[in-house]
Design brief:
By secondary structure, the chain is α/β, with parallel strands linked by helices. It contains eight helices and 16 strands. A six-stranded mixed beta sheet has the order 3-2-1-12-13-16, covered by helices on one side. Strands 4-5-6-7-9-8 form a six-stranded mixed beta sheet. Strand 12 and strand 13 form a beta hairpin. The longest helix is centred in the N-terminal third of the chain and has 14 residues.
Length: 327
């Protein structure tokens, strides 16, 4: 494993120098697949057992010998009491990446405070790893005329940065955001961003963007738009019910300490997945993760949510597989 890590780190450092999509001969010379552990929406400041959920994820990624881990937002508020929670994530002995969620700035905190607390290089950025390009977006910009609530917008300066970043790379690219670029009326200018991603092409005309992954909605869902998969990574912890469907699930002492849990439908076990990219087959996949409801399900409580023809509200992350780099 140490040799493999050194190889991947060396490959990541040299990836920016490549001027063409990873071809089959180069893929055949690599040692195995690139594997990144993904977890989203742990919500340390809501769920009562966030620490154990995150620890389960980190332990699993160590056993699976993942090359890196990433959390897709709504991780924790940047306050001193959450240092121990962050240290669990930092105990993974490899590259660790963060995406800013809208709730990471709750309690009057700023994005700058969240970025500093998490140790992010910047609130939006990109990096190369194992011969692939990864773009981390921050969809918490304020749109023109914004007055209150959680903004969901990618401002012009970030759009121009994204355009230039896509222009410069010739690697197959994965785009990570907290809010969805697929869900209707989620990010205000998502149509503009999707068009930019769809038009990104290598010098020989191949699409650069392999997939877009997000958290935020706490659902199990994916959709193909203009040959780009948009994949929701379900919450590690729960589905949000709201006040109307409140149901107490915790013993009284815990319920007093974690009052918001009654407005959720928690999963018994944490949900997370492993993104595995196979350069030889030019395919990537997400590993399934299945749990059960802790207490009555949203359906049991009369909560009705459906996307398309079937409900996406489930204590699971479904298996997913797709090719990349094909016109």
């Amino acid at each position: 494993m140490p040799d493999r890590r050194r190889f991947l780190q060396s490959l990541a450092a040299s990836a920016a120098a490549l001027s063409f999509p990873l071809p089959l001969p180069a893929a055949e010379s690599r040692s195995g697949k690139l594997r990144i552990g993904l977890i989203s929406d742990v919500h340390k400041d809501v769920i009562h057992d966030a620490d154990s959920r995150l620890q389960t994820f980190v332990d699993a990624m160590k056993r699976d010998q993942a090359d890196a881990v990433m959390q897709l937002g709504d991780f924790c508020i940047p306050k001193p009491e959450n240092r121990g929670f962050l240290s669990i994530f930092e105990s993974f002995p490899g590259p660790r990446y963060h995406v800013l969620g809208n709730h990471d700035m709750d309690g009057g905190h700023t994005r700058e405070q969240a970025v500093a607390f998490l140790g992010m290089q910047s609130r939006y950025h990109s990096f190369d790893l194992g011969g692939f390009h990864f773009i981390v977006l921050d969809a918490n910009d304020r749109p023109p005329g914004w007055k209150s609530g959680y903004p969901a917008f990618i401002a012009p300066d970030q759009v121009e940065w994204l355009r230039e970043d896509l222009r410069q790379t010739e690697l197959n690219t994965f785009v990570l955001s907290h809010q969805s670029l697929e869900r209707p009326a989620c990010i205000d200018n998502q149509d503009e961003i999707r068009k930019l991603l769809e038009n990104a092409r290598t010098r020989d005309g191949q699409p650069k963007v392999a997939a877009c992954l997000n958290g935020h909605w706490h659902i199990d869902h994916h959709r193909l738009i203009q040959r780009i998969p948009y994949i929701h990574v379900n919450s590690a912890s729960y589905f949000w019910l709201g006040e109307k469907f409140k149901h107490e699930r915790l013993p009284p002492d815990l319920a007093r300490r974690f009052p918001l849990v009654s407005s959720t439908a928690p999963y018994k076990d944490p949900l997370f997945t492993l993104l595995e990219i196979d350069p030889e087959k030019r395919r990537f996949s997400l590993r399934p993760s299945v749990s059960a409801w802790m207490g009555p399900s949203p359906r049991d409580l009369g909560h009705s949510t459906a996307a398309g023809e079937e409900s996406t509200v489930s204590p699971a992350i479904s298996a997913f597989e797709s090719g990349y780099g094909h016109v």
